[in-house]
Design goal:
By secondary structure, this protein is an alpha/beta fold. It folds into 2 domains: 3-188 and 306-399, Aminopeptidase, CATH 3.40.630.10; 191-304, 2-Layer Sandwich (Alpha-Beta Plaits). The chain is 37% helix and 25% strand. Helix 1 runs antiparallel to helix 10, helix 3 (109-125) crosses helix 10 and helix 6 packs antiparallel against helix 7. The radius of gyration is 24 Å and the shape is elongated.
């Protein structure tokens, strides 16, 4: 089997798997599991791969690794999918919607998982051809992408990247049409942290604010002024954005509470500033609340660095997309955070944005309960992952030094 025939065989196998991959995705979608609770998902993936004869091993807690191809490869490529869902109520109206109240796959990780299952099953069919070319592939089904600093670190600690030279992943993008794949060399996502600010002060009656430390007013100033001051103290080119997702203080209208809090995320395009922003954030918060006499506690959970795609990685994805009958399109850097970035600290590679919008249909948003994806994207994602892995492996084989006779 020549190289072109190998890529064609992968495409044909994934096409034949497409109906099953949709069923796998629908089963996962109906049974979403939160970060580090992906027990059923882990078992489902491991059982399907094991039934096909793929060598699998379970990661500590939840997650699966599967190895294919050469035992002593010229190049080993890792393909990663995340498995966890979000604490969001589903509002899609799909007949296979979430059966778990308050939890749903609002970020497309069910699509990522099903696509990687398809890629592994197809690659297993041509495993002898991979071994003959010195190519090995490791599938990483990873837990807990949605919590910072991310389950990628757990998988890496457990050996997911041992012996790995390149790593690839896809992420659903509901702003891109199905059949297209968004590619960008360099930074694709942003650094992202969680920020939790707690205020404490002397409460009292709302009729006598002068006898209290008006905590709610101070909290309102934190919410509005801290992002504003941060934007003036940082170079605008960092693209810093501090956005609140949760605010809580008090329970009744006529009582000034003695404590309150706000939680949000701090995102930055620039990794260098991300490493040094902590003391500045502390300084700004304490400066904002000082006139009101309240005490502030600032907790910053350092999250993930930006995903930075390498030139070789994007080249492999582009050629894999074309071989897999997808259309590469340019895409912009976003302020989203992705723990796939941790893999790229250890191996070269790239993440692609997988189009999931039905052409002419509505544009949904991630992390929303009404998310609907065009399910044709599942097989296309499988094809992209499988073909990109083979293309990268073939490149490495050609670039490897020739043994002297």
């Amino acid at each position: 089997m020549n190289d072109d025939a190998l890529l064609a065989a992968l495409g044909e196998r994934i096409t034949s798997l497409a109906p099953e991959l949709i069923e796998i995705r629908r089963d996962l979608h109906a049974h979403p599991e939160l970060s580090r609770e992906e027990t059923r998902t882990t078992q489902s993936v491991a059982r399907r791969l094991d039934s096909a004869g793929v060598a699998v091993r379970l990661l500590p807690g939840t997650g699966v690794l599967a190895d294919l191809g050469a035992a002593e490869p010229v190049h080993r490529i890792a393909l990663r999918a995340d498995m966890d869902a979000l604490p969001v109520r589903e509002r899609s109206g799909l007949e296979f919607g979430s059966r778990t109240e308050g939890v749903c796959h609002a970020c497309g990780h069910d699509v990522h998982t099903a696509a990687l299952v398809g890629a592994v099953l197809a690659l297993h069919e041509v495993e002898d051809a991979l071994a003959d070319r010195g190519i090995a592939v490791r599938a990483v089904f990873q837990a807990a992408e949605e919590v910072m600093p991310g389950g990628a670190l757990d998988a890496i600690t457990a050996g997911a990247l041992e012996g790995v030279d390149s790593v690839f992943a896809v992420h659903c993008d509901p702003s891109i049409d199905v059949g297209q794949v968004g590619l960008r060399e360099g930074a694709l996502t942003a650094a992202a942290d969680q920020v939790h600010i707690t205020l404490h002060g002397r409460g009292g009656h709302t009729s006598r604010p002068q006898l209290t430390e008006d905590l709610v007013f101070a909290l309102a100033k934190v919410i509005t002024d801290v992002p504003a001051v941060l934007g003036r103290r940082l170079d605008p080119r960092t693209g810093a954005a501090l956005v609140w997702g949760s605010v809580q203080a008090g329970r009744v209208a006529n009582v000034i509470p003695s404590s309150g809090e706000c939680r949000g995320t701090l995102r930055m395009l620039d990794a260098e500033s991300w490493h040094t922003v902590g003391p500045l954030l502390e300084e700004i918060v304490h400066g904002v609340v000082q006139p009101y006499g309240v005490k502030a506690q600032v907790e910053r959970v350092k999250g993930v660095p930006p995903v930075v795609n390498t030139a070789d990685g994007i080249s492999a994805l582009r050629r894999g997309a074309l071989a897999g009958r997808l259309t590469p399109v340019p895409t912009a850097q976003s302020l989203g955070g992705e723990d796939f970035a941790w893999y790229l600290d250890h191996a070269a590679g790239a993440m692609a944005r997988l189009g999931t919008r039905t052409p002419g249909g509505p544009t949904y948003d991630l992390h929303q309960g009404d998310l609907v994806v065009d399910e044709r994207a599942i097989a296309l994602g499988a094809r992209l992952l499988a073909t990109a892995a083979v293309v990268r492996g073939l490149d490495a084989r050609r670039q490897a030094p020739k043994e002297e006779s």
